[in-house]
Amino acid sequence: MTITAQHPKTAPMKKSSAKKWVVGVAATVLVGVGSIGGFVAYLALAHDEPMPAGVHTVEVYTIDDTLTVPSTDGRPLFGMCDAGSYYIKVGDAGQCVTLNGSLGLVTATATDQGPVLDSRAATAAAKMVKKGDQDAGPATRVLLEYQGAPVAVTTLSRLRGGGPVTATALDLG
After folding, report:
1. Which of 1, 51, 72, 106 has the smallest CB count inside 10 Å?
2. In this structure, are 34 and 107 located in the same domain?
3. Which range has the worst mean pLDDT, 43-52, 81-90, 113-122?
4. Are residues 104 and 156 in the same domain?
5. Model pTM?
6. Is there a single domain that holds both residue 38 and residue 85?
7. Are residues 131 and 161 in the same domain?
8. Do 19 and 36 share a domain, yes or no?
9. Residues 154 and 90 both lie in one domain
């Protein structure tokens, strides 16, 4: 015995329905592309502002000097030299640095000269670095990050000096 399936006849889509469908898909694609473009612009430009005046919490990282290389190409679009190194500019010198951390949080006061760590924060940062050295090896420089953006660099010897430390503000331009 043979069974044949009978399908109900379906009417072709009306031209006006097809146009609405195409317009809807096109609008969705345009909104998606616009959103992606806006996000890319945010990532590229969001971290060009210095730390605002006042007391802020910053993250402490060490810079792996064995992996640091000079950068002559200027600031990359997203602040990354490659998958594992970040672009920073101290004075006139651009560098691609590899960071170890975050080692922890300290408070810093933003000033015109750069972020200032009081003696307690400097001592706390130095202790964080000492503990981090057990994992990553001895460090000589420390990077401070505010809201996801590197803002200043100082040396470990200055942090261990016992007094307040004014870190060197990075050129964010």
Report:
1. 1
2. no
3. 43-52
4. yes
5. 0.67
6. no
7. yes
8. yes
9. yes
Is residue 61 within 8 A of residue 102, CB to CB? The reply is yes
Task: Provide CB contacts within 8 A for 73, sequence distance 6+.
Answer: 94
Kindly state the tokens that stand for 170.
């990075």
**Domain shared by 29 and 72, yes or no:** no
Domain of residue 109 covers 54-169
Burial of 91 (0-12, 13-18, 19+ CB in 10 A): exposed
> Which two structure tokens, joined as six digits, stand for 107?
């408070």
Which whole number is the average pLDDT over 46-59?
79
pLDDT tens for 94-131 read 888 888 888 999 999 999 888 999 999 999 999 988 77
Quick one: CA torsion of 135, 137, 140, 146, rounded to 10 degrees? -30
Mean pLDDT lowest for which of 34-38, 58-62, 68-72, 75-79? 34-38
The total of structural domains in the chain comes to 2
